[in-house]
Amino acid sequence: MHTNSNLIKYFYMKKALLFGLAGVMLLCSFSLKNLFGSKSTETTTTTTETTTTVNPDGKAAGAALRALYTNYKAAGKFDVKDPSNILNTISLITNCKNLKEKASDKAYWTSFASGLVAGSEQLVTEEISDQVTEGLNTLVSNVDTSKLETVADKAATVKTAATELQDIFALFK
Questions:
Q1: Which of 64, 70, 115, 130 could staple 88 via S-S, CB 3.0–4.6 A?
Q2: For residue 169, is pLDDT > 80?
Q3: How far out from the chain centre does Cα 134 lie?
């Protein structure tokens, strides 16, 4: 009988533990303030968000600009013969082509600048995004983007862009 007595005690202890855990879980699932009759106050806040679209050309240009600046900092100069710089400069110019045609479109300009910030991983900040966009517009205006077919054209374009890129890099310091 001694073993049955222990078995019955074990059964009741297990039952008590399960009910206790169920009670704790039930209390945790309710807000304790509401359970004990606390006053409910609701505050409605209305926020207005301004959304700026991120232009994919601006984002790609920002990524190319970041890669160019990283190489520039590592080398201490803009190396026009570095294949990575050539590819990134051509990518930058290609993604900035629309700046020439849409220079007066404020919405395009703003979304391009937002794309630059996002694509450059914050190298281009909101504070200087307009200056950088203006510099890129100047750069692309001085390049004949229709003549980027041959390697020689691309190399000449990179040489033309080098000075203006260094002016843009100066904004990041």
A1: 64
A2: yes
A3: 21
The phi and psi torsions of 141 (rounded to 5 degrees) equal -70, -25
Confidence of residue 164 (pLDDT cuts 50, 70, 90): confident
What is the DSSP code string of the chain? -HHHHHHHHHHHHHHHHHHHHHHHHHHHHS-HHHHTT---------------PPPHHHHHHHHHHHHHHHHHHHHSS--TT-HHHHHHHHHHHHHHHHHHHTTT-HHHHHHHHHHHHHHTTTSS-TTTHHHHHHHHHHHHHTS-TT---SHHHHHHHHHHHHHHHHHHHGGG-
> For 93-123, what is each residue's pLDDT tens digit?
999 999 988 988 999 999 999 999 999 999 9
Contact criterion met (CB below 8 Å) for 55 and 112: yes
* 168 in Cβ contact with 96 (< 8 Å): no
